[in-house]
Structure formats: structure tokens, C-alpha cells
Amino acid sequence: MSLKFDSLIIILNKIENKEKITVHSLMNDLEVSERSVHRYLQTLQVAGFPVHYDRKKESYLFVEGYSLRRPDVSVEETLALSLSKRLLKNFGTGMEKSLNDIEQKLSIKTGTEIPRHIVLKAEEPPLAVKDHLGSIHKAVINFQRIEINYKTLYSDKESVRKVDPYYVFFQDGFWILRGYCHLRKGLRTFALDRILSLKILNEHFVPVNISPEEELSGTFGVWLDEKLVNVVLRFDKQCKPYIQRKKWHQSQKEKELKDGRLEMRFEVVGLEDIKRWIYRSLPHVEVVAPKKLKETVRGELREAAKRI
Fold first, then answer.
1. 3-state class of 238 per DSSP?
2. 10-residue block means of pLDDT along the chain (308 residues)?
3. SS3 (DSSP) at 146
4. CA–CA separation, 163 vs 13, rounded Å?
5. Which residues have a Cβ under 8 Å from the Cβ of 241 and sit 6 or more positions away?
6. Which residues pair with 170 in a beta bridge?
7. Which long-range contacts (CB under 8 A, 24 or more apart) does 4-13 make?
């Protein structure tokens, strides 16, 4: 299937210009079938454009208040763009150019300098990761399937996989791809630094209505393919200042205990990432639940003690 993206632009411009738009008018203007028109409209909705059919006006419209026109940008938003430019410049000239292009389109000038008292540090990713980011971005916006030669972190095995790329996210210093893996027949995550080679295929996929924010809200790291688990931890008094410095997870709940310790509860996806986080606070943390996590931590610490 090949989506005609010029048709999507035409539809957006017609809606923006408040032309009367119906399925039949689009069939005539674009010279496509009724089925194709519905597919184009669905693609725009999935991509985040608030398009809906107004029965009173008998036309497709944007929701009230939405516009493609250049927005007003506040001082705070200008500063945010400037900070973003500084922080992301190490991710390659392509990223920096994209931010400059955004700045130009908004007709604002942030300047390349930010206040000296604001210090941002970001490590430059490997060249291969930069290239993968550019290729994946192109594939995502064009709904194109990719083929990757992938090597898992804890195995020497390599596998060739076809993936429908949905989104990428940055977590704990690594770029991660989320998409549908045709080999495993389900959603999977792939670390970009573990991708040995990547090519965009001349194959297209139908976009799915998936919310990265909702998916990532339950994670304690990069694990997304496990079930939700309730975790209860108790931290010693001397560890509390560090633990209470920030909110570590969206589901986090705290309770002060009579003995001075701090009890924290989480609902997280899988146990691997939170287990590694727990190890930062040893020996000042007790795993209360679940039993599986408690036994795993005890067993790994016992094995580690043998090597000391």
C-alpha cells in the first residue's frame, strides 16, 4: 500500500482554509475512491490532526481553536527552544538543523547562546545511532517498514527483523525504538546502539492509534513488554533525603512509618528496571513485595557475596 502524502497536504490546506469538504468532494478533487478518502482522513486523525465531521455545517473541520497557522510564541517558549537547541546539538547536525528550521518557521530568533549560569551536558551518541535516528524518523513519518539486523544485549545471537516503527524515546542515556516486530508478531523495543544495520523498505504499514505517553507511564526504564506489578519497598531513615529528592515514577506513593523509615509503593511494568534501581540504595532498602522480586534480590546478593 502506498499513501499519497500530497493528498494529505491538500486535505489539510482545504480544512485550514475553511473550504466545504465532504467525502464526495475529496473524491472529485483527488481523483480517488471513497475508500481512499476515508483512509486519508483516518491517517490524519491517527497522526494527531483533530479532524472531525460537523453534521450542521456538512463538512470536515478542525476542532474549534485548532489551526495550522503560525502560533504566537511566549518568552518562556522561546527560552525552551533555545535550551533544546543547546541540549540536542550533540545529537548531530541533522537535529540541530531541524531545530533551526522550526525556529525559522516560527519567525523567532532565540540566538544560540543561553545564560552562562545554565549548564547543560549531553553526550554525543555514536555515528551509527545518529544515522539510525534519521532513518527511523523518515520511516515513521512516511509509514514505511524497516528491516534491521539486531543483536540483543545479553546474547551474541543476531536476527534479521522487519519492524513497523511507531516512535523512539530517550531513556537512561540510550535511544530506544518502539514498533511492531513481524518476527515476534507483537510490539517490541529495540536499542538503537544494538542495531547492526538498518534499511527502509519499499513497504508501507497502516498506522496504529498508540499513545507513547500511556505506554511509557508504567515503565521504570526501557522495559515495556511485561505485565504491571505492584512493588512495595521500605527505605531506612538515612536514605530518605536521597529518595525524596524527586518523584521516581508516576505511580509512586509514600508513607512515613513509625520507626522513621519510608514506605514506597509503585505499579510498574516488569521487575528488571526497578530491581536495578533498588540496588542503588543497598543496604538501606527492604523489598516487601512482590515475593518474586524479594527472592530474586536475595539470590543475586547471595551470589555476589561469594565473589567478595
1. helix
2. 66 88 91 87 81 90 75 60 63 65 59 53 74 88 93 85 92 87 92 94 86 77 78 93 89 93 92 90 94 94 90
3. strand
4. 32
5. none
6. 175
7. 4/30, 4/32, 4/40, 5/142, 7/32, 7/40, 8/40, 8/43, 8/44, 11/40, 11/41, 11/44, 11/60, 12/44, 12/49, 12/68
